[in-house]
Amino acid sequence: MPFYLGVDGGQSGTTAFIADETGEVIGVGHGGPCNYPGAPDRREKFFQAIRETLEEACKDAGLDPEHVTFQAACLGLSGGAADKAQYSRELIRSEKYKITHDAEIALSGATGGRPGIVVIAGTGSIAFGRNGRGETARAGGWGYLFGDEGGAFYLVREALRAALRFEEGWGKKTALHPALCEATRSHSADELMRRFYTSEFPRERIAALAPLVDQAAEEGDEIAGAIIDQAGSQLAVYAEGVFAHLFRTEKPTAISYAGGAFRSKRLLKAFGRNVQERLGCVIEAPRFIPAAGALLEAFQLEGLFVALRGVPESDK
Question: Which residues of the chain are in CATH 3.30.420.40 domains?
Fold first, then answer.
C-alpha cells in the first residue's frame, strides 16, 4: 500500500502526518523546532527535529522508519526550503518530493486545497495566496526587524513601548506595565527592555508573552485594546496586498487564517472586520492545520485530490 507524508516544520515545533492511499491519517508525530536561522549547528538541529518527528509518526502508523519509502512527501518549512531541500531528501525516502515554505501548506490546510488567501500570525506574520490559475503571491514575512506586523512578537513589542512611555512619564497609564514586569520578574520596563536585547530573551520567548496583551485588553485596558485592534488592521493590509495581485478578475474561494496569535478573539474579530471593510469578504475558519495542508500537497503530487479523514484538530 502506498503511503503519503506531510510535514510542517517551524520555529516552535514540527508535526508530521502519514496517510494511506484513501486519505486516512494513520500516523502522527511531533518534534522540536527545525528552523534555527543563523545557528552554527542548525543542520544538526534540523536533522534531529525531522528524525524524531518522523520516527514518532511511523511508530504510530506501524511502519519501520528505517525502511519505509513514501509515494509522495511534502515538507513545508519555516525560513524557506533553499537550504533544507537536500537535508530533507537525506532523511526521508520518497518517490516524489515537494519542499516548500510553511505559508503554502498553511494555505492548503486552511482552505482544504482550494484557491484563496491565508494570513498567518504566529511569532511573525505573512499572507500567502493562490488563485484558480495556480498563480501565487505573498505579502509580508519580512522578519521582526522589518515587518511581522500583527504577529505575537509585534504585540509584545508594542506593549513594551507603551509600558516604557508610561514609565518615562509621557504615555498613558496601562496595565501592560505591571503585567510585563511581573511576568518577567523585572523591576522596571526599562530593565526589561534591556533584557530583551540579550540572549536571555530570544525572539520566541518574547513572543510567548503576547497573551498578556490579550488578557489586558479583555480586562478593559484601552492601550492593550488599541494594540490588538491595530494588529488586526495590519494583518488585513497583508491580505489586501495578496488580493490585489491575484484576484483582480475573480473572487478568492476563501480567506482564512492560521497561527497562535489568532487565539485572541479580539484580534480575530478585528482582522475579520477589516477584511470585510477592505475587500468585501468574510473570513473562514481554517479547515485543517498546516501539517494536513502538507499532506494534501503530497497527494496532489500524484494528481490526487482526496478527502482527508482522521485529522487531529490541533497540534500538541
Answer: 3-112+287-301, 114-286
Predicted local confidence at residue 162, as pLDDT: 98
> Which CATH topology does 3-112+287-301 take?
Nucleotidyltransferase; domain 5 (3.30.420)
The predicted model scores a pTM of 0.86
Highest averaged pLDDT of the listed ranges 142-146, 188-192, 198-202: 188-192
pLDDT of 40 higher than 70: no
Nearest to 18 by CA among 53, 61, 59: 61
Please state which CATH number belongs to domain 114-286: 3.30.420.40
- Res. 310: pLDDT tops 90: no
